[in-house]
Design brief:
Keywords: Cell membrane, Membrane, Transmembrane, Transmembrane helix, Transport
InterPro entries: NCS2, UacT-like, Xan_ur_permease
Oligomer: single chain
Number of domains: 1
Largest sheet: 2 strands, antiparallel
Main location: membrane
Strand content: under 5%
Helix content: 55-70%
Subcellular location: Cell membrane
Distance between the termini: 38 Å
Strand order of the largest sheet: 1-2
Structural class: mainly alpha
Membrane topology: Multi-pass membrane protein
Length: 450
Amino acid sequence: MSEAIPGRLAPSPVDQRLPLLQLLLVGFQHVLLMYGGAVAVPLIVGQAAGLSREEIAFLINADLLVAGIATLVQSLGLGPIGIRMPVMMGASFAAVGSMVVMAGMPGVGINGIFGATIAAGLFGMLIAPFMSRIVRFFPPLVTGTVITSIGMSLFPVAINWAGGGSEAGSHYGAPEFLILSSVVLLTILLISRFMTGLWVNISVLLGLGLGYLLAACFGMVDLGGMDSRPWFDVVTPLHFGVPEFHLAPVLAMCLVVVIIFVESTGMFLALGKVTDTEISPQRLRRGLLCDAGASFFAGFFNTFTHSSFAQNIGLVQMTGVRSRYVTATAGVLLIGFSLVPKVAFLVASIPPAVLGGAGIAMFGMVASSGIRILQEADIGDRRNQLLIAVSIGMGMVPVVRPDFFANLPHWLEPITHSGIAMTSIWAVALNLLFNMCGQDRQHLCGSHSH
């Protein structure tokens, strides 16, 4: 790590430079954690658009390339773009519902989705400076509520993985899946309890590695099709042809970008708390500009809207490694994987049950981080308790019953299908009602609650 120079302040935790081995190991942990999500979006959209297996494989590699470049820019910065914090970027789930609908629209198809992604990225870059001013509406009461909701919204993902994932079918919850996920979780817990230093920092990687070996012994690692994948392949822009621009898809994707900005704001503020870093409006603007710029760039490189990944904040919290150079290293690894399809295929072969054991620990850490932040707010106030209860309750609606809002217009799906967006909107609105504009409060409308 870098040392403090006499007469100068010690470097911020996010600016610390770690030994190369630690950078690679912790960076690889970040890649393993977000890889499933990064692969899932192109898989779902590719299948909805009726693409062949080879075309879907190309979509996945394209997503890895853009995710790697966006992660590098977000972590290290490029001029006025990039939050310069340990952030992992990838294809956003907020857009999946809208893109599946677009894939089935006559005359739209995959090129219409890419066109909508480019237009939405440009729209995002135009509104990012204005969106960055909303940081004042996210005091600890709101931030803690949103972060707790992020963790709780991710729990079903971890639990689904632990039971064997959606591909387990009738074997879901089989003993071998439960044993695998339990071994991974137990390994992480024991290392965190009895080891120190680097071992604790890579506890998730060690748990995943042991789980992978055990899964291979159970015959649960499927490497079928790996031989047909090339060793080296370069992602070319406009692989599927010229992007097409249609009004309805463009408007729908612009709404998605606004939702991504709301989610990212909550995540950046969460990361600020985890890393003891102030998220100023200027810093937030740089982060949102990277989200939007990545989406604009992604449309030309055969992939979709990008945003920061919430689950990786849990890894930062759990390992205590807050250096942005770790995620920059992970970005380089993602770019490398995009060039070597066989390696990407190998990482994708990690059974969901193995990821589930790690997910339970890390996603829980996100929720516990939110609860810790809520302690900074006046949660003895009954109205603030009501704000937390209703906001988290509304955020759980799409998690508990994804079809609850099925009869509402499709263009609302980016909001109604996102627990994070639902919690954010309700928490901000209720904080405005209870704490910022209340006539019975002894401070002016626009100030924060104590």
